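Data availability (excerpt). The following record was deposited with the supplementary files.
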Amino acid sequence: MNAERRRRGQKPTGDAVKLAKFKADFDQAYYGKLRHSEKARRIVDLLRAWHGRQITEQWNKAEGEQLENQIRLVLLSPFLNAVRALDTEFFKLLAQAANMLSSRICNSKDKAIGTGDTSRDKRILEYAVEIAGTPAHTPHEINVLFDPGFSKLREEAQRAKNKKLHDRLHQLGPVPHKDEPRGKASPNYEKDVKLPPKRRK
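Predicted structure:
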């Protein structure tokens, strides 16, 4: 996060406790139970990169078969090294990582985004890196960013999801966000206080 802030010319956040919690939350959302092993983390990265490449290949067929083969060899080099070394630990971790990512991808709403893993906590924490610690959206606006069909939900469903996301933003990180407008500034003000309809002049 501080790297992104420096890129934007902003001062790095100096709260070491918050940064440590954010990193721990991100590692859990990204690597799951395999986060404690450096070797396992590299294997998760390998599978994510391979699956993500398969997704992008659908849109970048013009790159050419020769270039694709070169990219595949680079991505597969850790696997080939493990085969040469008969690294049994590598293949045990590979099976665990494949099971984790397979489950996440199967449960993703949009399997064609990034590496196919659009799990909620991971997306929230990636969003936190994107905004680099500067509040940019309300929970409602974040829900719209994450799900283009969110605005089509019933008002009661939107409110429930906004509250659920608001609570999760505070549990993770916390992730900075703008407050929803209240009082007369709220788009639902007239409905909330049940004002009579405005008379036409």
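Summary of structural features: The mean pLDDT is 79.
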